[in-house]
Specification:
The protein is α+β, with helices and mostly antiparallel strands. It has two domains: about 100 residues, Ribosome-recycling factor (Topoisomerase I, Chain A, domain 4, Orthogonal Bundle), CATH 1.10.132; about 70 residues, 2-Layer Sandwich (Gyrase A, domain 2), CATH 3.30.1360.40. Helices cover about 60% and strands about 15% of the residues. The chain contains four helices and six strands. The strands form two sheets. It has a four-stranded antiparallel beta sheet with strand order 3-4-6-5, with helices on one face. It has a two-stranded antiparallel ribbon with strand order 1-2. A hairpin with a 4-residue loop joins strand 5 and strand 6.
Length: about 190
């Protein structure tokens, strides 16, 4: 049995764990922390001549200050569909249309809402940890299968140790990302 098979298993596990981290980062970016951030609107889809299109493809989104998001449509006739899409996204914002652009005032978070957001962050983090554990389990099972098919025992033990080391480092990344986001949410 070729030890390269174990190496391939380790790199596959690493890829799966990295995807879990990437997904976690995207999920955390969307959770608002009380300050204006264009990423809050990243999930908003606008009806652009019958096609549902991401907001970022029909307008520019900016933050002139910490409490305001400004959406500047590239076509003036898109201002009403964009306003409707922001309302339909149910983000808790009340967009103001001045005929040229849409201003969104980001209200400060209440203590209760901050606690809800921290719970949401912890839930998203647990989902990422679950994905990492699943990748670890699959990799360990693959190493055991390779061992049954002739991979030397010491090579299998080395592969399992490497997989555990990778798992630990990715779990540490999850903890760091969650701590950073919690601090961001709880900072008034």
């Amino acid at each position: 049995m070729n030890p390269n098979d174990a190496t391939a298993t380790i790199s596959t596990a690493d890829e799966h764990m990295q995807k879990a981290i990437d997904h976690l980062e995207n999920e955390l970016r969307v959770i608002r922390a009380g300050r204006a951030n264009p990423a809050i609107l990243s999930g908003v889809m606008v009806d652009y001549y019958g096609t549902m299109t991401p907001l970022s493809q029909v307008s520019s989104v900016g933050t002139p200050d910490a409490r305001t998001i400004v959406v500047q449509p590239w076509e003036k006739n898109m201002i009403n569909p964009i306003e409707k899409a922001i309302m339909a996204a149910n983000l808790g914002f009340n967009p103001q249309n001045n005929g040229e652009s849409i201003r969104i005032m980001v209200p400060p978070l209440t203590e209760e809402r901050r606690k809800e957001l921290v719970k949401q962050v912890k839930h998203v983090g647990e989902t990422a940890r679950m994905s990492i554990r699943n990748a670890r389990r699959d990799a360990i099972e693959e190493v055991k299968r390779l061992q049954k098919n002739g991979l030397p025992e010491d090579a299998a033990k080395d592969a399992e140790a490497k997989i555990q080391k990778i798992t630990d480092s990715f779990n540490k990344k999850v903890d760091e990302l969650l701590d950073k986001k919690e601090k961001e949410i709880l900072t008034v």
